[in-house]
Amino acid sequence: MKLSSESVILMDDPEAVYRSILPELESTVTDRSSVDVEVRDSSLVMRVNSDDIISMRSTLNTWLRLIQIAHDVCVVGRSAFKGA
């Protein structure tokens, strides 16, 4: 069973988050799923295609967590730069 998912994540600086996860996009962890991420206006759009539900769950958990961490680091970096 083939599965697909599209997540649209609104954020302040999607380009910074995209640049920070770009190296991860260049390598594949499994052959059972694929991930594509792009910046669209003020959001990050993540598309996942998987061969099965287990791979879909695992890939979504991994990439959503990765995006969350990248976002949090960008917020901390921006605050440090502003001296807040």
Gyration radius, in Å: 14 Å
Low-confidence stretches: none
Strand order of the largest sheet: 1-3-2
Please give the largest β-sheet.
3 strands, antiparallel
What does this structure look like?
The protein is built from 2 helices and 3 strands. It has 84 residues and is of the alpha+beta class. A hairpin with a 2-residue loop joins strand 2 and strand 3 (43-50). Helix 1 (14-25) packs across helix 2 (53-82). The chain is elongated. The mean pLDDT is 92.
In short:
The chain is 50% helix and 29% strand.
Key traits:
single chain, alpha+beta, 84 residues
Task: Give the SSE layout.
Elements (H helix, E strand, L loop, with lengths): L2 E8 L3 H12 L7 E8 L2 E8 L2 H30 L2
Antiparallel strand pairs: 1-3, 2-3
Helix pairs in contact: 1-2
